[in-house]
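Quick one, tokens below. Sequence please?
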């Protein structure tokens, strides 16, 4: 038995002093601070004890593009950032997770090399409609779909007709569809990005692309009854559309990402392609509105959308936003990135735990994850909320030292992480491969 003691334990009810008692990998009791006298003591003092975070939007890229990331490096970075559960996206691995056979290829690649628990999304690409039921039965946590080109040829986006048929099948399965919502027609008539100007890149993916996509997605979700989740919302206006749809009975939720909450367009220099992502990081007024809507509960969760690539694909020599890979490496830094802004805006660690632990766990039905509660897995984080640091890419565990947060001052340091009560040291890969319902 191990007792984790903290004057700032972030419990489901409140942040308060507590003794969290762990036995056989589970939380078996939460007692008043200092009252448990048996067992091994881990005393955090005034540092916070958080539940392990769940990140349901991570591109690990193995197999096929392991040179971009990989299960060992990604999950080591996750643990260093206080993330104890990740759900891997069905692209940009090769093959993509669009059939049970491909899922098993991915699970085999992950086996024995994960430092945190890992689950998998299936992919919906229009040509695999007949495969969705078998993937669902095999334990994927839902299905990822694109409404505009994905950026890789082996994972095509869905046309309007394909999206309707896909959502109808997902509704029949009572599954979850997570959607990259940008309208391809709006993108097609927007100015093409070219050169190092971030302002030009921003104009190439306007908020209207998100708004138009969500209008169509809401209509189809209403028609089919499917459960839908909108990925990486960058435009604050979209949140109001989603809230109106939910009020009207549509089963639709949304997430945003740390980079949209920490950064703004004015923070991004021309040629700074490490900050290129789709949809893009917008202006400071939009960031403020995102925070307001997150705080009001209109956005359910915050996840990384960790989408790494080798440094050369960010074309640092030219800084050309039209050529650079679009994706931000941020898995290890999500917690301090969010806490930096949350703290300055008067939010507490309980809010952050709701957005980054219990919210993502609830989205995908991980009943054993997401909170410091009796019966849950003892996934725990020793977090120093008052420490500050400047991001050094060389100190990251991601495969490549490329991140939009490089050189930025952040608040909050993860000191230690435990998975089912065992310290994650980065050398012993003790994570498990999860299936839906686990």
């Amino acid at each position: 038995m191990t007792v984790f003691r903290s004057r700032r334990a972030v419990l489901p009810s409140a942040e308060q002093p507590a003794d969290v008692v762990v036995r056989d990998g589970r939380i078996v009791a939460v007692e008043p601070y200092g009252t448990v006298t048996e067992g091994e003591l881990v005393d955090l003092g005034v540092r916070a004890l958080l539940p392990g975070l769940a990140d349901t939007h991570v591109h690990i890229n193995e197999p096929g593009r392991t040179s971009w990331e990989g299960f060992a490096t990604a999950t080591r970075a996750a643990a260093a950032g206080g993330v104890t559960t990740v759900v891997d996206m069905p692209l940009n691995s090769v093959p993509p997770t669009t059939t049970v056979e491909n899922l098993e290829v991915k699970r085999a690649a992950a086996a024995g090399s994960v430092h945190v628990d890992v689950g998998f999304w299936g992919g919906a690409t229009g040509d695999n409609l007949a495969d969705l039921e078998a993937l669902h039965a095999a334990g994927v946590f839902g299905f990822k779909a694109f409404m505009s080109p994905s950026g890789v040829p082996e994972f095509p986006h869905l046309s309007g007709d394909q999206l309707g048929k896909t959502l109808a099948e997902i509704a029949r399965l009572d599954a979850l569809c997570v959607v990259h919502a940008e309208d391809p027609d709006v993108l097609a008539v927007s100015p093409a990005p070219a050169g190092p100007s971030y302002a030009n890149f921003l104009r190439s993916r306007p908020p209207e692309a998100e708004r138009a996509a969500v209008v169509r997605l809401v209509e189809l979700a209403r028609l089919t009854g499917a459960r839908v989740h909108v990925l990486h919302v960058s435009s604050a206006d979209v949140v109001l559309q989603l809230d109106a749809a939910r009020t009207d009975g549509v089963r639709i939720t949304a997430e945003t990402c740390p980079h949209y909450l920490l950064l703004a367009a004015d923070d991004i220099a021309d040629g700074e392609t490490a900050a290129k992502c789709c949809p893009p990081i917008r202006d400071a007024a939009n960031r403020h509105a995102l925070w307001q809507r997150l705080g009001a509960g209109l956005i359910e969760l915050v996840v990384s959308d960790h989408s790494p690539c080798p440094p050369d694909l960010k074309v640092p020599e030219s800084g050309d936003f039209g050529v650079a890979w679009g994706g931000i490496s941020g898995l290890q830094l999500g917690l301090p990135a969010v806490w930096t802004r949350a703290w300055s805006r008067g939010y507490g660690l309980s809010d952050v735990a709701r957005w980054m632990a219990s919210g993502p766990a609830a989205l995908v039905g991980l009943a054993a994850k997401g909170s410091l509660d009796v019966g849950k897995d003892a996934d725990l984080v020793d977090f120093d909320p008052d420490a500050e640091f400047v991001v050094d890419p060389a100190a990251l565990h991601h495969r490549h030292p490329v991140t939009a947060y490089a050189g930025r001052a952040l608040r909050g340091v993860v000191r230690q992480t435990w998975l089912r009560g065992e310290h994650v040291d980065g050398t012993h890969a003790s994570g498990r491969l999860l299936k839906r319902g686990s």
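The chain has a mean pLDDT of 97. The CA atoms of residues 192 and 247 lie 37 Å apart.
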